[in-house]
Amino acid sequence: MSRRGFLALSGISLAGALAACAGESTSTTHLRLSSWNIPTDLETYQRIADEFVADHPGTSVSVEVTTGQFHQWFITRLAADLAPDIIRITPQQIGRYAANGSLVDLSGAIPADYADDYSEPFWAIGARENGVFGIFQHTDTFITFYHRDVMKQIGVTPPSSLDEAWRWDEFLQIAAEVKKVTGRYAFGFGWSGTQTAYRWLPIVYQNGGAFLGEDGQTPSMDTDEAIEALEFGRRWYADELVSTSNMCKSGGGDVSRNMFLTGQIGMMLNNPEPITQLDEEMPDQWGTTYMIRNTDEASDLGGNALAVTKSSKHPGLAAELVAYITSREKMVDFCHEGNWLPARASLDAADIDYAAHTDTMQQFIDQGARIPLSLVKAESGQYFSSLNTVFADYADLCFLGELSPSDASAQMMDAMRSVTAG
Amino acid sequence: MTTPSGIATRPTATTAADDDEPRRRSRSKAPYLFVGPAALLFLAFSLVPIVVAIGLAFQETATLGDGTWVGTDNFERLGSDPLFLTSLRNTLIFTVGTVPTAMVIGLALAVALNRPLPGRAVLRALFFVPMVAAGVVVGVIMSWIFNTDYGVANNLLGVVGLDRVPWLTSPQWAMFTLILVVVWTRVGFCMVIYLGALQSIPNELKEAAAIDGASRWQRFWSVTWPLLRPTTSILLILNVVFSLQAFDVIYVMTGGGPGFSTTVLIQYVFRAAFIDARMGYAAALGLVLVAILLLFTLLRQRATRKAEEVL
């Protein structure tokens, strides 16, 4: 091939590659939906989207994967106006983007009675005074897993209803007994890295405290209730009930799950994710009961919402697809396939028809209904991504004993104020 | 040329030069064509972002949209930001801990492998493998190995009757563990570079020193080491750059914790930019990092030049 020929061919190939990068079909209205890299979910999203496309001739939908660190990924794509049309986003991530105009108001595309099938806390994840910027699709929360054998050895029958859930003092007494049986530690907490530090915040709410005030913006970790909660957390480590390798910032994934599987702990506070592995590695040897509580009840706010980004060239159609995916029928489909907990209040475990552990999944659903509105407002607020990191920093120092609970509270408040001051 | 053939060929040569003119002109463009794409990429992905980052450092910028000009406010805030000072201190400890250690071990390995040994090629490759492994992969594997409760490291200590070590869970141990891991990844690189330099030193010099009665240590210290100085200088700068940029292993293994004990400057830049969405402040932090690196490089170059003058 001649040099000119080579250059011409290279030019044509480059132009073709650039056109392909645009990823948009010229003959159809194309939407992109981005989700976490969970193969089952990606397949289900694509199947549901294909059904939507069948009802909407002239459209097409591709499901993509959200890669790397979320904020870095999303901010850079928004800045380049190349964000996907629809984004799967956690309650803790949505606040910043709902506040800064990165997400589109979905109010016009959803039926007027759409909110009726949602609890107030779950609807509040996406709803703001000036619109609805996301619809909660599925939830995820914490309950208590236990080794059946350990409970038998200490002669404890775990609670079978929410009203009987262990209070803090009772839980610590049981934990001390569990530690004697395991010979190592008593229980674990299902963090998996700094970005999940917020999973501990329900402990503050269980004691009547709050991370942020009623406005969802004013730091309030200096109340007696919040400091008592930090003291409670400190005891976990001071009494060696929990290993220091199981902390907010610990690397290596879900440490509590590994310790539960290796018998080094007899209980763990965690979400439904470990179930598959527990079934594989210790079938019939584990059970579940409800999340611990104190004066109040609260548990982790997990799960995801769907939102339409400002980069979308077809926000109306994208909002329609969001409404379609979060419809009652499709929510059942999605939760059944992915073993997720439904966000709609009218759905229970029997409706979802889980492949296994219907009772456990119902426990999760019931526990999720006790997540307080104030916790939702705090975690889905404008500054939460930064505040979560601040919480991780000082909770870590407090639990390790590097700072007293009151000092940790004071320093955390200073750092939180510097964030919320903008 | 005064030969007849030379005189005879002169007109022909002139004609040939005229014929070569377009080719010469084309050749004079060729370097630009070759350099052009790289220069374009450098311009788009390095120079322009650097200029934009300098501009950003003097602005208060939210996640999206235009910033507000705030002069030197971002730099003034650095002095009173405890996390900046902590991360600066941690960066210094991390750099001092990793750079000389990796270089000394790398040099020792290079000297050991610079002689006929069975399986020498395999050993060289094995030492170099950690350098090419992705930082995230190394971080995840090391998190497991150094887990206090079910990691291989503590199990091995248990086998020889030693107590468990809180490798990553104690503020006093975590930085040491990270340095250990990073040194492990870096040693192979230092070894390969030193090995190349050792093999370029003429044997005659060492032989002459040996004939003069120099001991093995004297031969190394007075002949080999001075000749390795340019390599050491380059390795030192590269290793300092690597250490200042070390992000992935720390992010995966400790997330900067426990507490702030392993939060380094580059992590704080990332946190300010993408967690706190303070792009202007992150740019200012980034410029401080660049300034430290520039200062270090200049000092190192000056020191090397002085040493060469002495020699």
Automatic annotation (TrEMBL), chain A:
**Signal peptide location in the record?**
1-22
Q: Would I find Nucleus among this entry's keywords?
A: no
> Which key words tag this protein in UniProt?
Signal
In terms of InterPro entries, this protein maps to:
Bact_solute-bd_prot1, SBP
PANTHER family on file: ARABINOSE-BINDING PROTEIN-RELATED (PTHR43649), DIACETYLCHITOBIOSE BINDING PROTEIN DASA (PTHR43649:SF12)
The protein depicted here goes by the name: Sugar ABC transporter substrate-binding protein
